Amino acid sequence: MSLKQKTLDLKKRMHEALQGGGAKAIEKQVAMGKMTARERIIALLDPNSFHEYDLFVEHSAKDFDMDKKHLPGDGVITGTGTINGYPVCIFAQDFTVAGGSLGFMHARKITKIMDHAMKLKIPLIGINDSGGARIQEGVNSLAGYGDIFYRNTLASGVIPQISVILGPCAGGAVYSPALTDFVFVVDKISKMFITGPEVIKTVLGEEISMEALGGARVQAEVTGNAHFFSESEDDCFEQIKKLVSFIPWNNTKKAEPFPKKTPNTKLYKIEEIFPTDPMQPYDVRNIIKAIVDNSDFFEIQELFARNIVIGFARLNGQTMGFVANQPLVLAGVLDVDSSDKAARFIRYCDAFNIPLVTLVDLPGYLPGVDQEHAGVIRHGAKILYSYSEATVPKMTVILRKAYGGGYIAMCSRHLKADFVFAWPTAEIAVMGPEGAANIIFRTEISEAENPDEMRKLKVKEYKKKFANPYVAAAYGYIDAVIDPNETRRFLIHAIEVSSHKDETRPTKKHGIPPF
Amino acid sequence: METEKEQKEEKQEFKKFVLDGDEYKTLLTKKYLSRKPYIVNDPGKIISFIPGTIIKVFVANGQTVKAGEKLLILEAMKMNNILTAPVNGKIKKLLVVDGDKVANKQLLVEIIEEATRESKEKKKVKKIIIPIKKKGDRSK
Description:
Chain A is an alpha/beta fold.
């Protein structure tokens, strides 16, 4: 055979393999409102950047007549490519081939591209669309999952790992996304659960739809398993592209700097957004937008635990991780869910050299039997742990209330924030004025002729004396009380002088955070 | 898009939210509003601890039972769990039969605790002991 013939033969083989599960299976996939695995990769990566490997991998199962079956690529597509010029490793499960089920060789293709990503020190993106374990392959498919989980764990904090759920992801399969940094879901397409509606029906006789049990909205709103929710696959890919632009390739690098841009202060005016009365709500995201480059704030877990806001934005072109109490929802209290949400994000930023900016405005931790019994002690401790542990530059701005344990937890000076600024509206106190006055002046109030009037008087007295930033500033717990409109200038300067920050921690294998 | 969102938020009604006596105006989440009130555990109420199937009921309505006596078998996750009476008493309500599928935390059996001599004595003893302890604590 001449080289030309050999090449023609290769083309023929490739053409066959690229058909995936064939026309009928592809038709079904399209009917479900889903793109095919290869279409997804092409839509996500830069044009012509995708290079596929292991196209000719065959499954190795022999039992149950599997040896007579041919599964192109064994149901998963792997390769490398670029997103906005950033290199990434990628795999996408192909639902048209045996329902994207995971067998021995399927898993080996995934672990191989994961090992690649770790060696090349570049992000890994996994697109999940699979019916689950390939039952015919028995314990080998379980081994495959285990091999993937192990690699997910070792790669955690070394390279960014992104999971995209574009179909069912059930049973053990859910734990690979759960171990990765960011999970993307799409409305009506993504489904995640440990036991599906079928099992629940046989065991309990309870009927629930896949959507209500573990659909995209549930994962984004109720469980917090998903970090990004979108209406369509195309929107989802746009979100991924944006996320990749904010994060570094690996834990030894900083995020790529962007051209500097000023915020849109015409649309976001602090004096218009911000009520000075600490009892009044406002959307803290608008304050972030008033401070950051191009007023562009990329929010994470927008729908989950909305009483805290987390996300990325840039200051002078440099990526920052923002954590902010949200007075708009539940007065911005810390509770079980919001502590979990913030703590994990803080650890992400610390692992990937992203400086932290914390905006504080909270009345404290949420009281209640349900919170106590749900373990608010253990969960709330995660925030303290992750802020104390973080060695990236830490900047804190206290906007209004910073009461009690909430003040300490929100990256206070005591947890070694590098810079703590306060607006003149800040109130740093051991608790809210009403509660504090009731305790301190208990006898005065109860013995007064008119207790209500006395209480009002004492609350006023307390407010005047303690509801300000100057008591904390007098102890040096605050570095500067600043004009709110100077926040951006102070933060940018703080980052500039912190660019060579070097803080070491005692040598240890790892800490024991209150998981 | 953003202005649309903001307008939506403005339309939402803010609720009062009291914390340490201070009253805040804010939005309340679905999760917060649907939190369940705390209920004191009643030892006479036998509640399923796992969803499953009742495969055998040993007792009948009105029957007297002794603490530790078998009440029923709850099959779940391929295990036969034997549920026993936690107290001496009489079966007041038997809410399941063989073959019933039950959800988690579902009430299965209700027992009226029988005030036996022992428990009466215990209660008497408790009544005497507790105030003494409290007095002791205060004097410290």
